Amino acid sequence: MWPIGYIMDNSYSPFRIERELPSMNWRDAFEDLLALEAGRPMIREEYRQAEAEFYSRYNFKHANYMISSINSLLLDRQKSRTKAQVLLKAAEEKGDVEAKDNLTQRLFPALKTDEERLITEAQRARDIFEVNTGAPASKLKPRGQWMASLMSSGALPDWNWSAVITSDGPVVVFDKLSDSGAGFSTSELELIEGCEQGQPHKFGTPCPLPTVAMRAAIEHPYVLAPDMPEDPFRSLRASKSSILGHGAVTEQIKLRDGSIGFKTIITNYLVNGATVKKEFTGEPVKLLEEIEHARLSMTSMRVAVETLSAGSPTLSPLEQALKEWMNRPGAKALAQQEDWASP
Hints:
It is a single chain. The chain is of the alpha+beta class. The protein is built from 13 helices and six strands. Strands 3-2-1-4-5-6 form a six-stranded antiparallel beta sheet. Helix 4 (45-94) runs antiparallel to helix 5, helix 4 (45-94) packs parallel to helix 11 (284-310) and helix 5 (97-132) runs antiparallel to helix 12. The longest helix is centred in the first third of the chain and has 50 residues, at 45-94. The chain is elongated, with a radius of gyration of 25 Å. Mean pLDDT is 74; it is low at 204-238 and 337-343.
């Protein structure tokens, strides 16, 4: 199935080659080849530069947010450790062996483990920032999103795409306009398994998402996640900006200067059943911002639904240790006395 099948499975796919020769920008080169094959000019360099500047800002903002949040959590853990030391001293003075053992054997080790986890996450955020700094925009896009961008840029004028977020991450649905039987869907997880682990992709069955499920979402938003109960969605419908899924159609148009351009129409399907359409012509950064906004909104929506469906969140080892310590007789009174609410 050219060129989608080639991109996903061929040994000369840009996804495969970039792993062997990472110093070259294979994705941009392949996009230009597709554009020329379709009788279109190569992608404008100013468009790619604008996208690269967007991702540079996005990369810095994300890394800064992650590291700042982790530093704040580490500060909270340090305060918790200081208060725990006060509780330990009080337990030793009162000869409370049980309280002392709970603190030294449960709470302090849990605090240490949690602090080490946060430090590791902060280092990982720094590493990701350094790796992404200066990288071309096409290489920073998830594989499915990059494939979708080929359609929005006009390199694949005969294809449209839609996307939702599932437990396997983003799922992109590709639909060939000239051949209704050529549509299919793939998740980011499947692309990772195929490109990095060599597992073959399965083609042939179009995903019904752009048609049946998306239309049903307008009247009954919860059908997009039939394994989820209806109530969680009802409790979240007040947020009109929450996005369940979105799709895009790219149309060829004639620009004012007489040249050929492309207009991309993004349709967002909201939790309350409404649809919002936005048009983008020669605005790659605004289109990219819209796609990133929708991806984050869909991810947040999925997490919120799964959290509500689970009933109660899973406790971390630190939270479990604190809960057990606080449940012992006299612990709450002692904690209140020392002004310790929670780590």
